[in-house]
Amino acid sequence: MNAQKTGSLIAAIRKEQNHTQQDLANELGVSSAAISKWERGIGFPDVSLIEPLATSLGITIAELLKGERIENGDANEYENLLSDVVKVSKNEISKKKKISNWIIAITVAVLYLLISIITQKWEITWVVWIVYCFYRIFTEYIYKKY
């Protein structure tokens, strides 16, 4: 992957479609500065934006990542493979966010519990929070199993 080539392709197709950077940014839910960085080859789109960007530009993911149009019939095979890679990457990002959220929630619950034990004051909201955290952990574990 070459960020310069990909950026040039993004810019060329965007201009062919008579779209501004802001138009493309609005469609993808990013800033026009992000589009500018991609087009100048300074940055590369987030993996979660690869598929929507390719769709918006009317090209395949393989073409986007390669930074040039692909004319031969192998494009379909590459496209399916790259689409699967993008989906797996999105799932991994989602899992990591979920784990981070749970770590934060459990940490807060434990802190509430410790504060309650130390101060000997049991605020009802703290108890509800702790019960909720354990309820979520239990239900996610059950859903994950089935």
UniProtKB/TrEMBL annotation:
Question: What InterPro entries would the database entry show?
Answer: Cro/C1-type_HTH (IPR001387), Lambda_DNA-bd_dom_sf (IPR010982), WWWY (IPR058092)
Is Cell cycle one of the keywords? Answer: no
Signal peptide segment = none
Q: In its keyword annotation, does this UniProt entry include Magnesium? A: no
Q: Which UniProt keywords apply?
A: DNA-binding, Membrane, Transmembrane, Transmembrane helix
Pfam families in the cross-refs: HTH_3
Q: Where are the transmembrane segments?
A: 99-118, 124-143
Which Gene Ontology molecular-function terms are recorded? DNA binding
Which segments constitute the HTH cro/C1-type domain? 10-64
Q: Which PANTHER family match?
A: HTH-TYPE TRANSCRIPTIONAL REGULATOR XRE, TRACRIPTIONAL REGULATORY PROTEIN-RELATED-RELATED
Give the protein name, as stated in the record: Helix-turn-helix domain-containing protein
Q: What species is given as this protein's source?
A: Sporofaciens musculi
